[in-house]
Specification:
280 residues, alpha+beta, Jelly Rolls, Arc Repressor Mutant, subunit A, 3 domains, five-stranded antiparallel β-sheet, four-stranded antiparallel β-sheet, 42% helix
Length: 280
Amino acid sequence: MSVVVCEAEADADAVRDVRKYVHHGQVLAMALRPGHIDVGLRRSEMTRFTYGVGGMILPRRHVEEWGQTRDIHLLVLGISDAALTEAYDGTGREVELRREQVLVDTRVGGMVSAVNAERIAGFPSGRLFLDSIEQALAAALVNGYAVRRHRSVRTHRGGLGPARLRKIEELVHAKMQDELTLWEMAQSVQLSTAHFSRMFHKSTGETPHQFVLRRRLERAKEILGAAEARVLDVAVACGFKTQQHFARVFRRMCGASPTEYRQGFAHRDQPDRWQPGFAD
């Protein structure tokens, strides 16, 4: 999934900046700053749409339109064809979503906001977080906005078997310090990313991102309780990009900072406050 911020200049010349637009890949946009967009199939017949912060747009693909923007800043997410087709029927055919010039969808908006928060923080959660969000967004968009064609019914019985779950455990352990992608996890058990995500959640009750994050925090607690390693070294050893991100996630999930946890390790029987969720 690509993440781009598009900004429009707020000046008189911007009004004359009318040009043709066409999106060949599927995008989803959210307003970061209020403004308006004029759009239409003909330059002489454009309609104005006004957006507040958080307003969303789901454009139609392969349709050439005239448009101009004023003042508005947009967060633009590119959703891959692979994610959309897996969410639809897995055949590889291009998925067509209907145009929603003003998209009102609380679930989709929450996920886009989570991506924006991750962007502002410098993408500390890594590729797996964006992969998981892309899969969830693709499923929500396909279920709510796909132009339906006849397709075979896809059924999934049960979740991942014990052997496949062991392979995932081994992969996560082997890549504890490294970037881990959803594609790598799915490939290790020879499944597509969308099918893997569904089966994994059915087996564990967690998304792959939540699972990996929990395993990394469990490993961090082991190191903190057994050695006097610096918090920065613990963060790096457990796959966190920065000490600040590690400390923030650790406090939210475990109820204490890494230093406080180490100091109070004698009371390690206290339950953790694990709260699964996309944003971290």
